[in-house]
Amino acid sequence: MLQVSSLVKVYPGPVAALQGVDLDVPAGMFGLLGPNGAGKSTFMRILAGVLEPTSGAVKLDGRDALADPQWLSERLGYLPQDFGFYAHLTGRDMLLHLLRLKGVTAPGGLGRVADELLERVNLAFAARRAVKSYSGGMRQRLGIAQAIAGNPRLLIVDEPTAGLDPEERLRFYHLLAQLAEDRVVLLSTHIVEDVAVLCPQFAVIRAGRLVANTTPRAAREALEGHIVEGVVRPADLAGLRREWQVTQELLVEGRHRVRVYTPGGDMPVGFGHVAPSLEDAYLVLMRAGALPGAAAGRPAPAGAGA
User: 270: domain range?
Assistant: First the structure.
């Protein structure tokens, strides 16, 4: 388990990027969801040992990870949001270079390790191709290959699906799900679908503070009876936004379908109740800072469904 206590990061200015984050992350896939600028990357970089916190504690399996960076690095795999490659190198040569930088050693030699990693992330077919010819998804899989070298206990991936097309994203989902079977995988993203597909539990961060630690199911159930939907003429959209808490505006077959959060029970004329989505719950959290009821703000019990 990864345990984070009272984590604070203040940049010169001062700018408080993290304001006392407390979070327990169990083994398996865990999502950290929030908009750009919420503090996700700062949080991930501290956990990865790239950035020092102003204060707070981080423990991995009960051991102080901040006090022993070398111990942590031996158990860590990290795929940052912006991962640079030498585009002229082949995928295999690039991976070999990264393995040497990480200090990876193996009795059979690094070439064997690189080949096994490329096979695991389904890149063996492109091992001899230049990285500049790789698609965005292939580059992400190459990044994951270096991150899982040495079978890390903790795997941190920061915005891994941003910019991927739907097919590449689906491939990446399957890969991450497999990797989460025997380690702690912390996924940072601003894409709600990433969490809905992958994470049995997730936290939401806003302006450097956690505003929820819940499951997708609990987040949706907290909004039962509070989300309504209706068709709105384009000329009426501005007035609707002023009067009601709009969560989503969808263009379906040329018609504007609008979803509205109604905590008081009233609803616009012509609207009707619909099943809440995780996107609704996320947008309510971003605007209100909380979901109705207390259940959505507590970690779910072990075994709770998504």
Answer: 219-297
